[in-house]
Every structure is written in C-alpha cells, then in structure tokens.
Amino acid sequence: MAAFAKTSVEMKRMRCLLLIGCLCLPLLALARPAPAPTVALEPAQQQWLDTHRSLRVGLVLQVPYAQFDRRLQQLYGANVELVNWLAQALRLDLTWRNFADQAALEHALQAGEIDFAPGLTQTPTSLRLWLFSDPYMRVPQLMVGPRTGAMAVDLEKLGPADRVAVRMPSALADYLRSNYGNLNLQGVPNERQALQGVLGGQASYAVLDEAQLSRLSRESEFSDLAVVADIGLPQLLRVGSRRDWPLLADVLERGLQAMPAKELEQLHQRWLQPKYPRLSESAGFWQNLALLFGMLLLCAIATLVWQRRQQRQLERSLLAARETLVERQTREEALRLSQFSIDQSTVGILWVNWDSHVRYANHAAERMLGYAEGELLERPLIDFEPNLQMDRWLQLWRRARTGNGGAEQFESQCLRADGSLLPVDLSLSFLRFRDAEYLVVFLTDVTERRRALAALRESEARLKGIAGNVPGLVFRLERDPAEGDLEFPYISEGSEALVGYSPAAIQHPDMGLRNLVHPQDRADYHRVQDLALANNQDWSWQGRILTRQGEQRWADIKASTRALADGRVVWDGVVWDITQSKRAELALARSQGQLRELSAHLESVREEEKARIAREVHDELGQMLTVLKLEVSMCELAFAELDPGLNERLSSMKRLIAQLFQLVRDVATALRPPILDAGIASAIEWQARRFEARTQIPCLVQVPENLPALSDAKATGLFRILQEALTNVMRHAQAHTVQILLVREDAELRMSVIDDGVGFALDQARPTSFGLVGVRERVLMLGGSMVLDSEPGEGSSLSVAIPLD
C-alpha cells in the first residue's frame, strides 16, 4: 500500500511539472539570461580569487530581496539572482546562509561564518563591520495614493489635513520629518498597515519603498492604489564583504562593474516593479496579460481539481490504513508494557483455574517459591500452600466469583521448592479473561516485615524495661493533628514512685504534667513549655512539683523534639527528682550569701578601722610631731650659736621630723584618702594624677559634673576597685595610655577602666588572681555587676556598674 501511494504521488507530481513546463516554456525562452561576460581582474586579484573560489554568502530573508522556498528547498529573490550572476561571472563556488534579521547577519560576520552579503545599506555603524561596494541598485521611495485621486502630488504643497502614513521608527520617517516640515506624518508599525490606512481613509497617502510596494501590490486588496510621487530619497543597495579581505571587496566591485545595465534593469523589473500600473503606463498590456493568465489558470484549475479528487480518495484509503496500523501498534505496545510490568513486579502473581491448577506465574512468584521458569505451570496450589485444601479452595472460588465480601486477604506460609517455609500475605481476586475464569493470587513476601515487627516489639519491651528502671518519669508528649490538643501517649511506670499517680491518671486530658507543678511555679512552667511547643523546640525547666500526698519535690524536666514521618512533632522527655541536690544547692547558696554578708561586714569594719587609724595617726601623731618640731626650733634658737655641732644635729633632727610628717601623711592617705570626703569624682581625678606621677603613663579621666551623693561605703568601694584596676595596669598591662570613664546610666553609676596594653585571654586567666576576685566580691557586696573584656594584643577593659539607689 505504501509503494502504491508513493507511485501515485510521483505520477501526479510528474504530470504537474509537465503541465507547468508546457505553459511556461514561452516565458522561459524570453527570460533566458544572456551568458555572463568575463570579468577582467588585476593579477593580484586573480591570484587571490584562484585560492578563494569557495565563498560563504549571507542573506537576510526579506521579500522580495531574498526568500526561501521550503517545498523546493532553495533561495530566490533579487539579491539571490544578483549573487548567482556574480558567481557565474567570477566562477565562484558559493555556500548560502540565511538569517532572520540584520543583527543575526552581523553576528555571523563577527563569528567568521560568512564572507560577503548583498543588499546592504551603508551606515556609519556598519562601516566598522563591512567593506562596501558602489551601489548596484537604487530602490526609490514612493508615495502611494488612491487611484481616483490626483495624478501627481507635490510634497511641498501638502497641508496638515493630508495625513501621510509611514513606518516608524525608520530612516525614511526621519528624512521626511527633517526635510518636509509641512507634512502631517502618521506612524504605523509596517508598510501593510500604511496602505490599509489609505484604503480605510485614516490617511491620505502612504510612503514606502518600491520593493515593499512590489510585494504588496500583488494582493488584490491594494489594486485601487497608485504611485503619485517619488520623495527623492532612493535606497542604495550595496554588497558588503569582510574588512579583513580587502581583495574580496575589489573582486566583487569589478564583478558588479562588469554586470550589464540591462541585466540590472531586468532584475529591477522582475522583483521590484509594482504589479499594478503606474500613472505613466498603459493598462491594455496588463489586461491582455491578465486574460492570458486567466485562461491558463482555468486549465490548471481543471487539472488540479481532477488530481485533487484522486488524491483525496487515495488519502482517505491511506489514512484509514494508517489509523488501523497505529491502533494495532498501540494495543501491542500496551500489551507488551503490561506483560513487562507484571513480569518485573515484586509481587508474585498466579492465575489459577477453578481446579486450583496454576495457568500463569510471573517471575516474582517463581523466585519467591524457588522454582525455575515455567515449573509452576499446571501445579495445584496445594503443592506450595498445604493449608489450601480443595474444599476451602472451592469455597474461596465461589465467594470471589459472586463478589461477596470483596477480595480475600489472609496471611499464610508457603512451602518453597527446597522445603523451607515462606511467610506471605495472600490476596485473591476474581478475573474473567476471554472465555475463561481465573482467581488471581497475589503473593507478598512479609519476611522482612515480620522480622521488623519482632525487632520493634523487642525494642519496645527494652524501652519499657529501661524506662521502668529510670529514677524518674519518662514521657512522650504530642499534639493532636486534628484538634491541636496536647496528649501523653506514653507515661512510664516510674510515675508511681515519683508523684504517686499511675500513668493512666497522668495521661487523662484533665491531668497532665502541668497540674503536678507547684502553683507558684506554674506560670514559669507554662511560659517555657508554650514557647517550646509553639516553635517545635527542645525545652528544659526546673521547679517544684507536688505529689499525690501533697509533698513538695524539686524536679528537672527535659524534653527533646522529633519530627515523625507523617509530619507530626513529638517531644520525648524525662522528669528527674532533684530534691536532694536542689536542697543542697539552696543550702550552699544560703551559705554563700551568709559568707558574702560576713565578708561585706568585715570589709566595712576594716574600712571603718582604717578610717579611725588614719584619723588618729593624722591627728594624734601629727600633733606630737608638730610639738616636737616646735621644741627643736626653740632649741635651735636658744643654743645653736653656742655650739656649731649642735646646730647641725638640730637641723638633722628637723629633716627627720619633716620626713616623719610626710610618712604620717602617706600612711593616713593609704588607709583612707581624705579626698574621698570631697566626692568620688574628685577622688578618681586625684588617684589618676598619682598614677601618672608614679608610672609616667598618661591617664584620661571623664567624669560627669553633677553626680548624686554616694554613701561612704559605695564611694570607698568604687575607689578601692579603681586602685586595684590601676595596680593591675601598672604591673601587667605594659600600656601606653589609660582611660577612666564615670557615667550615669539611668539608676546605675558605671565606672570603666580601659588600657591599650598587651591584654590576655580570658580563658587563660589564673583562677587564683585575688585582685580580680576581690573586685568581683566588692561589686557583689555593692549589689552591682562587673564586665571584663580582653584579647591578646588588644588591651583590656574593666566595667563596673553599681546601683545608685
């Protein structure tokens, strides 16, 4: 059938070609091109051309310059004929490439895929890419109007009422706008819409090039239009070639110059001349030509009608045969896929007759039961299912055949070929296929499932044993996916020993862990748990719980979150009894608090004792030294002239008394600087100046002007902290500058000591650094906080904040 169809189509194609050849023979004889003349080239050009006969031509597909006939698979058009003439004249071997637009053509040029292209317009931008020849064709830009209108139009005399349609944006529109300011231009997307606008009355005239007019004038829609003017801006078509081959441009230029003017004129008339008459032409020739073509068309139509009728009959036969073939192939493909799917299935499938003999078995069933391919056929089911006696089989057959109870499913153990037992799930389903009836038996190997189930049961038993021996309560908390309520699917037996409630009592919706929490701690427990449940996070809480007997215990509750396969989130947790450790912790905290109070008391007593000793040293010892100095001065006045040696001794005694005075002042200042009575700001400034004098390290101090009055204990404590910080800077920091800041922050007073020394790693600080320990204890005694920040090579910063209240 396919050979017959192919022969018929070939015969029909030969008849059509024969008819067209007979009709067009006279025209072809008239249009036979003259032999191409030889082109005279210079020796260098001829030598280059001999080595470059194979050239690549690029064309932009645009009617009527270049078109592609998909049926004949060939190019045709004005530029195609021009290049063919050049190829014949220069004896070139051409390779054609066509492109959708100018940008694609230029991209191919830059990629080195083409050598020259015809039909290009020279622009400043394109001169950087191409070497252009002289124009070989001038395409006029024409104004078209209704055939019933004016015979000729002067563009200078057109007024605002005469709308002129032109494609925008375009170089033609720019030319009209710059040279004819009186024109009322109307922009349209393309030349077709420009002509349609003239026919529809939206525009008086349309301006387009002669090539596009030649293409559109072939349509009967525009037969009532005529050319009324030439705007004087012809489109100059040139041949562009690669800039790196200047000799190619010279060869193409010589070829174009050798082309006869008559050939170019005929090329222009064949492709660019409009098909309706100009105002200067006679219509009689076209009428006779139209009559001739009409007669030829009637003959061709009659022939085509007869051939079309034969073709339809043949196509209907071919289509019916093709549909039958496709349907058969589809059914066969579906059958092959079904058979492949059944054979490759992991579920064993058996087709069994009413007599319990196997009629079909797939590969999975044979592998499960340990038989070779084909050995299961015609075997009764009792051979590998001992429990399936004939009476039971017939009962299952009748039940499946009548459809009562749906498909039969049960677990069993099949006897394999080697005598071992295979645990399976059996599913029976009734099937009618053609004229026979079968029970389809599906075998599913459940060995791994049973093994996993046994392992799960063992794991659950192990988990319950471990949870039962944990000294606390193990629980699982999850949220109901339907209602969003919390529930405890598991509570360990340790709940009896911990709180006196059974697991069932705690699992009750009205109970839960929240009702075990002490009323005073319940708000904190709710906050911690609700935050964790809202964000699906782990949570931990310590607090008091109440047993069933009302006993108060301390508990540590920890829960970790886990996402299940179905999307639910559960929390597995433990409630530890930490009563003993918590009581010890509280006792230790009370002991530490008492020690801290005792240390604060001792520090206060020590500061008071230092102040008392300083006052006594300053007052009592100072008065005695003053009296002694007066006595020595009196002796010097009375007896110094009597004995020169006595005068020297008295002078030495006065120097010793002065040194003793300075020592008394230093001791009194060290015990308690009197500057503290002037305020903490003055004391800080005084201490900074003493530090500068002792170490020669610049010290910048910034203190506020109006500070609230501090108690003596707080002022003394801040001063001692500053002394300790400056002592550490002097001993260890190797600093170049020190900065002391005292600022008030709301209800706190913050003092910061910053140096630019060598610094140290906080995790490597000595635990027995009693200076820092003393500073920390002083801060805690004052009810404040301390922040120490330091890095090696980055200096250190000590910040202390104490409450003003």
UniProtKB/TrEMBL annotation:
Residues 612-805 form the Histidine kinase domain. Residues 342-382, 459-536 form the PAS domain. InterPro entries: HATPase_C_sf, HATPase_dom, His_kinase_dom, PAC, PAS, PAS-assoc_C, PAS-like_dom_sf, PAS_fold_3. Its EC number is 2.7.13.3. GO terms for molecular function: phosphorelay sensor kinase activity; protein dimerization activity. Gene3D superfamilies: 1.20.5.1930, Histidine kinase-like ATPase, C-terminal domain, PAS domain, Periplasmic binding protein-like II. The chain crosses the membrane at residues 285-306. GO terms for cellular component: membrane. Residues 408-458, 539-590 form the PAC domain. The keyword Metal-binding does not apply. Residues 1-31 form the signal peptide. Keywords: Kinase, Membrane, Signal, Transferase, Transmembrane, Transmembrane helix, Two-component regulatory system. It is an enzyme of class 2 (transferase). NCBIfam families: sensory_box. This is Sensor histidine kinase LiaS. It comes from Pseudomonas reidholzensis.
